[in-house]
Structure formats: C-alpha cells, structure tokens
Design a protein that fits this description.
11 strands; eleven-stranded mixed sheet; single chain; 4 helices; Immunoglobulin-like; alpha+beta
C-alpha cells in the first residue's frame, strides 16, 4: 500500500509540467495531518487559566481575576498556587461561590504573594472547563500587575489517586498594566508671545512700529507676520492692529 502511495506521487519526465500539482497535494495532506495532531494534543491536556477582561487599570482600582481549570480526564482534587505581584497588588477576597470545587481542605487564602486553592469534589470529579475561584484585587501602585501559576497538582477521579499532568501554556500567566495618577498628563511651561513684539518687551508699541519702519526702509530685517513669504503693507496693518486694538 505504501509503495502504491509513493508510486502515485513519483515524478516521471513526461509529467514534469504537473510537478507543482503533484508536490502541492501531499504537502497539503501532511499539513492537515499535523494540524489535526496539534488540535488533538491541545484537547488531550489539562491546564490552568488565569484571566481578566482588563488589560490596564488605575492605581487604587479594584478588579477581578478568574481562575479556571480545563480537564481532559475527570479530576476530583486540586492543589493550586497562584503567585502575584505583592508590591503592586492587594488581594481583597477570594470568591468560591460558583466554584467546581465543593470541599476545601482549607479555606482559600493569600499570603506572602501567593494564593492557595486546595480542595476536591465528590465522586469522579469534573471534566472540561470549570471555574475554581474569582479573586478580588486592588492595585496599590503603578507598575506591572502579574499573576502566574507557580504550583499545580491534579488528581484523577479514578479511585486510585492517579496524578494528572498539568501542561504549561500561555493561559498560566496574566499581566495587567497599573497606571499612576499622572497618566495622560503632560507637564511643562507654555509661553505665549506676540509675533509683532519685535523688541521682545512684552507689548506692541511705538518701539515695534519703529523697528518695522526701519526694516521696511533698509531691508535689514523682514517682519513677515502673515507668513506669505514677503514683507508688505499687510504686515504693517497687523502690527498696527496689535498695537492699538489690544
């Protein structure tokens, strides 16, 4: 069978114009097979997901992060440790009201930059994706708020205490930017000046008119107040308006 498959896609001189087609078809088949294997590998794994709808927050803002588990085999006991940026964050509460875990070996708690979630379920456990806890957090100061899985233990609900391997993935970590009070504020000094104040004394007076007239006659300077590329009577009109109408 394999020989027939190889013979089918072998290249003979008279078929040279069909080389591209003959090569393209097996490449597509192989790519499809690998894509299918990748999908199967993803489905055949258990992992922790840390998520939040927010990507940026303000200092002193309260928000929630969700911790969930995707199980590819029934799991009835977990031991999770979630680390977080203690300098940047305060953990205010850990809500397990909708958790798939029904029996806690100890109440979930946070200590020294770590959140501990340890417990189990009745019978054979759970399969698929389920929420474990919702954690209420407050941002203490500007910086990067980071959560990541630092310890994981899953036990299968097979009655034998069989460990279930938890794979590492991009879902194991969450980063949120905490902005300070000065976000979006540009500080500095602004100086407003009159373009017709030729001598720079802060006002437009006879001294500026004198400078303009001298420049008009001698062409030593060019006062182009309307930016048309030349010094004309219009510039003189602008100078007079600033002088007498302000």
């Amino acid at each position: 069978m394999i020989q027939k498959f190889l013979l089918l896609f072998s290249i003979r001189p008279r078929d040279r114009k069909f080389d591209t087609v003959r090569y393209a078809f097996p490449i597509v088949v192989i790519a499809t097979i690998f894509a299918g294997l990748a999908s199967i590998a993803t489905e055949n794994s258990s992992y922790v997901t840390i998520s939040s709808p927010l990507t940026t927050i303000s200092r002193d803002q309260e928000f929630f992060i969700d911790v969930s588990i995707s199980a590819h085999v029934p799991i009835n006991a977990i031991d999770l440790v979630i680390s977080y940026s203690e300098k940047t964050l305060d953990v205010l509460a850990i809500d397990t009201g909708t958790s798939v875990i029904t029996l806690w070996t100890e109440n979930p708690y946070a200590e020294n930059g770590k959140i501990y979630l340890r417990g189990g379920t009745f019978r054979k456990g759970f399969l698929g994706e389920h929420e474990v806890a919702r954690i209420k957090v407050r941002a203490k100061e500007a910086g990067e708020a980071r959560f990541f899985v630092s310890g994981t233990e899953f036990i299968a609900g097979d009655g034998l205490g069989t460990p279930v391997t938890a794979v590492e993935s991009e879902h194991n970590e969450l980063k949120i930017a905490v902005l300070g009070d000065d976000r979006g504020v540009i500080s500095g000094e602004a100086t407003i000046s009159l373009v017709t104040d030729t001598d720079g004394d802060g006002d437009v007076d006879l001294g500026d008119i004198s400078d303009f007239m001298t420049a008009w006659l001698t062409r030593t300077n060019m006062y182009d107040f309307n930016h048309d590329g030349k010094m004309t009577f219009r510039d003189f009109s602008i100078l007079l308006a600033d002088s007498f109408l302000r």
